[in-house]
Structures are given as C-alpha cells and as structure tokens.
Specification:
- 2 copies of one chain form a homodimer.
- By secondary structure, chain A is mostly helical.
- Chain A is 61% helix and 0% strand.
- The first copy, chain A, is built from 11 helices and no strands.
- In chain A, helix 7 runs antiparallel to helix 11.
- Chains A and B meet through helix 4, helix 8, helix 9, helix 10 and helix 11 of A and helix 4, helix 8, helix 9, helix 10 and helix 11 of B.
- The structure holds a DNA duplex.
DNA sequence: GAATGGTGATACCGATCGGTAGCGTCGTCA
DNA sequence: TGACGACGCTACCGATCGGTATCACCATTC
C-alpha cells in the first residue's frame, strides 16, 4: 500500500446508508449477527487489526453471507460507526430525560452518565475518534461520520449552555466538549469512581455555578441508564 | 490474524530502548533517515496503514538496512513514540521557560503553545493516543509508552497547580489534562485561532482565577516557541 | 592490501489481506 | 411441486503483509 486510499467513498456512499446492501425481506438476523460481532471486534482491537476472516469465525456466519449483506469491509466499518452514533444519542437523551426541564441538572446527569461510561471495564475510548484515526483519507466514511457525530455533540452542548444562559456560550460549549472528549481518551487515568465528580465540578466552574451548599458532589438523582456500548 | 498479538513485548523490551538495535559506530544517519520517514508516515496515516515497503520507498533506504537498525516494525513504532515523547517534553519545557517563575503565566504559556499546536495544518491528533488505539494488547510497547507519557503529563500539571495553590489540586490537574487531551482529539473543530483563548479561559475558570482587567484574552507575552512536531 | 562493517539490490519466504465464483441445501410461498 | 431467496461450504484470486538470505560494493581503518 504505497499511496493513501483513493477518494471513491463519495460516490459510493450515496447509495443506501453507506454501502449497506439492501436488506432482503426474508433476512433472519444475519445482518445483525455480523454487525454485532464486527462492532465488538472493531471496538476491542481496532478496525485494521480485525480481518474479515476473524469476524466470520466469531459470528458463525459464512464469509459469502457476510459479503451479501455488506459490500465491503469499509461498509461494515461505516455501519459500525453509524450504529454507535445512534446508540450514543439514545443513551444521551435518556440521561438527559431524567432531569428534563432544568438545564443545569441535565448537564450534570449527562456528565454523570459519561463518567460512568468511561469507567466501565473494557472501555477503550470513543469509537468515532479511534476509528477515524486509522484512516488518513478525509473522504473515508469513518472520517465523515466522526465529523458529523462531533458536530452534533457540540450543538447539543451549545443548546444546553444557551438555556443555562451563561455568557460566551460558544466557548463554554467547546470547553465542555473538550472535557468530554478528554474523558473519552483518558484510558483509565481518572481516579476510580471519580470521573463523574471531576467532570461535574469542571462544568460548574466553567459555567460559574457554585456547588450546592450541602453534599460535595451533587449527582443526578437518577442513577439508572447504565446500559452498555462505548462512546 | 485470529487472536490478538501475544505478550512477548515484556521480555524483548528489556534490551536497549525498546528493540532499537545497537547503533553501529560508523552509522551515517541511516537510523535517523528511517525513523524520520517512518514517523512522518505513521503519524499521517496510522501505523497499520503504513507498510514497511512504503517506508523503504520514501526513505530511500534499503529494506535490509532498515531491518539492520530496527529489529521489527514494532521496534520502529516504539522508537517513533519515544521520539515524539522526547520532543513533546522539550517543547513543553521551552513553552514554560518563557514564563518561568509565575506558575499561572507558565500554565497560560503552555496552553498557548498547545492551542497553536492543535491548530497547525496537518495536525492529526496526539500520536500517543492514536497509535495506542491501534493495539489492543496492553503489553504492546505503544500502550506502555502512552501510559507513561500521559502519567508524566498529569504529574507536570499537578506540579503547576500545586504551585498555584488552588484547592483540590489533583482534581484540577485531571481537569486540565482532560482539556488538553480533548484539544488533541478536536480535529479542527475549535474555531480558527480560538483554541488558545478557549483553553486559557477554561483553565482560569477551573483555577478560580479572574481574567486580567484590561484586554479580553491575556496571551502569554511570548509568542515564540513555534516549532513543528505533533502532540 | 587485507580486514571490517555499513549499505544496496534482488529475490524470496509463508501468512494474511479483502473479495469472489460456483455449487449444493433448505425453508418459504405460490 | 416448483420457483425463489437466503444461506453455508470450498476453493480460489491477486495483492500485500512483515521479515530474511545472499551477495556485491565501497569506505574506513590498521
């Protein structure tokens, strides 16, 4: 591989959701099986470290069937990231919902969720960041999905900061995004069970909010939402 | 590649600086040529995306010579990260030196340097983070070098925060590290020429420091230090 | 002038890469 | 019962992977 991958993504990606082949009517969970296995391996080991044969072995689906559902390995990679993106926002929304109405509490609930997320066993960072770093072509689907994902995160943070009414909302939203992306790449460096505290107190400082008079850490009331996938 | 790489790093790495073969007396810059080329390609495209043949072509050094200086490709990867580590701290120290004595000004100078660093053309994130993400084996040299690098960064930040005398020094140091790692992965999302402002104002908020009365952004006086490599 | 040692060129190794062809099987539906 | 579609299996493709063996060349050193 002497040169970087050519920019053929743009044309091809136009069709049905980043190369995902049309799902056939009688499909019985094969697409899901392949995608679930590939997602797990891609996240745990990195995209380029996982060969198609490995996915075939682990999923129990035939190589030929895999290629009936995903035109190329890159299509599988794109589907992985799209799926992570969807699940991430689902959980984000759920975290916020518990505190809906009060933007400060929403933000705290969000950071509590992220703090727990990055402290999980097997957490290996944000898949969007990790995978995008493996490809240098700016037109590669992974790069585009990451860009969209991170732009969406900024917009959501910006909306919360706007509702809180702090000054320099753009800068503060960027600062919150830096904190969160930093947490994603922290790789277990944050103290055990301290990630949430560190994130929340940082956010309060950035927003100029004094911590509640009583207890030290002020968690969101609702500790639920603790499902799995990475982010 | 069905299974992850075996953990053979530990034993082998004992010898001379992560696999780097003994440099021969009459060596005339060949090691440097290879390492410089490999570093550039690894950083720009990712380690697994760059084959040895590519490095051979770009460097103009024979494949056999390359393997006389580096026992394996992984040795080259480790040497790349070690070198990035050294250059990073050299520049870090230089950035701090301009404001030596006043820890707040040191921190501001540091963040100014980082803000400019991540805004450079061709900046593609922190090589330690990027490369470590490509390997799942915790014993891989890349993982260990990253861990050491990031631990060192925390310690340096902690020392500055201690000198400033803010409360919760550990938490604040972690928060600064999150900001910086977040900036490293920001991939051009921060506003043009605004990275430094955003980092510095965040740091002041975290430290409870009011911005200087006069101008809005309060850069470190000394805009020098602008050399190249990534971080 | 011989020994030494770093270099380059070529040719090769086995393994794995992403991806495909061909064929047989089985379940569903008309 | 026959067509159809999803699937598994085997075997294969050319390309590239990381790494090595061999040998000739050339500069330095004694």
């Amino acid at each position: 591989m002497i040169s970087s991958r050519p920019s053929i993504w743009a044309q091809a990606a136009v069709r049905s959701g980043y190369f995902l082949k049309a799902v056939h009517a009688r499909d019985s969970g094969t697409t899901e099986r392949v995608l679930a296995t590939a997602s797990r391996l891609f996240y745990a080991h990195g995209v380029r470290a996982v060969g198609v044969e490995w996915i075939v072995q682990e999923s129990g689906i035939a190589r030929t069937s895999l290629y009936r559902h995903f035109a190329t390995k890159d299509a599988l990679v794109a589907a992985f990231l799209e799926r992570e993106d969807r699940e991430f926002w689902t959980q984000w929304s759920a975290a916020v919902r518990a505190a809906a109405g009060d933007p400060v509490r929403e933000l705290m609930a969000l950071l509590d969720w992220i703090g727990r997320r990055v402290s999980r066993n097997g957490y290996r960072g944000c898949p969007q960041i990790n995978v995008a770093a493996e490809f240098s072509d700016p037109d590669h689907p992974a790069r585009k999905i990451r860009a969209r994902h991170k732009a969406a995160m900024f917009e959501r943070l910006k909306a919360i900061v706007d509702r809180i009414g702090a000054g320099h909302a753009d800068d503060v939203a960027h600062q919150l995004a830096l904190l969160i992306d930093g947490a994603f790449t922290s790789d277990g460096r944050l103290p055990r069970a301290g990630a949430t505290r560190i994130l929340q107190s940082a956010a309060r400082a950035l927003l100029g909010i004094h911590p509640p008079r009583g207890a030290g850490s002020a968690h969101a009331k609702d500790p639920a939402i603790g499902r799995s996938p990475p982010g």
